[in-house]
């Protein structure tokens, strides 16, 4: 693993990665955390929305995949993310929580998991960051580092923080 390709990338790509990585972590936490509707959920949700908007807007300045006059399908996804983020806030404020939850999940899966997965394809910057210069032990360590917090969170959510008669509470 090496950060060199990312450090040599254009500023728009650096901003995009710097916002999407914390958005991926915060979003994953919010999707699995049972403390929905709490002040912490609202705060992290606002941070997540801000990160997603900055990430989507920064992508309009990334033109590595030129298909139509400098733009690609990823730019269509960025438009959907911007519109979706605005709608997520609107739905939450109107109390349409099921639709809010569904749309947040769709945005997360489509823009972070699926689109993010495509960045790991050969000849892409994130592929070079993750795989160039990496040995099998380094890659296994990376997998452990990325999965351990979520395993611990699941353990805590399902056993330690569950009150006898209600929802799990974290940081309340």
Structure commentary:
There is one protein chain. It contains 7 helices and no strands. With 172 residues, it is mainly alpha-helical. The chain is globular, with a radius of gyration of 18 Å. Mean pLDDT is 81; it is low at 160-164 and 168-172.
Short description:
With 172 residues, the protein is mostly helical. It has helices spanning 4-7, 11-32, 39-59, 73-93, 97-118, 125-131, 136-160.
Secondary-structure map with pairings?
Blueprint: H1 4-7, H2 11-32, H3 39-59, H4 73-93, H5 97-118, H6 125-131, H7 136-160
Helix pairs in contact: 2-3, 2-5, 3-4, 4-5
Per DSSP E runs of 2 or more residues, the count of β-strands stands at: 0
Order of helices and strands: HHHHHHH
So how many helices? Answer: 7
Largest sheet: none
Q: If you average the pLDDT, what whole number results?
A: 81
Helix content: over 70%
- Beta-strand percent range: under 5%
**Structural class by helix and strand composition:** mainly alpha
- In angstroms, what separates the terminal alpha carbons? 38 Å
Please tell me what the overall shape is.
globular
pLDDT < 50 runs, ≥5 residues: 160-164, 168-172
Rg value: 18 Å
């Amino acid at each position: 693993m090496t950060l060199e390709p990312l450090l040599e990338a254009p500023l728009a790509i650096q901003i995009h990665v710097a916002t999407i990585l914390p958005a991926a972590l915060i979003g994953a936490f919010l999707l699995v955390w049972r403390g929905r509707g709490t002040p912490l959920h609202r705060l992290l949700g606002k941070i997540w929305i801000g990160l997603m908007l900055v990430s989507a807007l920064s992508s309009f300045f990334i033109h590595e995949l030129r298909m139509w006059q400098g733009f690609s399908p990823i730019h269509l996804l960025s438009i959907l993310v911007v519109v979706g983020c605005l709608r997520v806030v609107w739905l939450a404020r109107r109390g349409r929580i099921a639709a809010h939850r569904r749309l947040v999940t769709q945005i997360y899966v489509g823009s972070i998991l699926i689109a993010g997965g495509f960045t790991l394809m050969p000849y892409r910057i994130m592929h070079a960051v993750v795989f160039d210069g990496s040995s099998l032990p380094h890659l296994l360590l990376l997998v452990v580092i990325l999965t351990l917090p979520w395993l611990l969170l699941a353990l805590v959510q399902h056993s330690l923080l569950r009150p006898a008669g209600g929802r799990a509470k974290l940081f309340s």
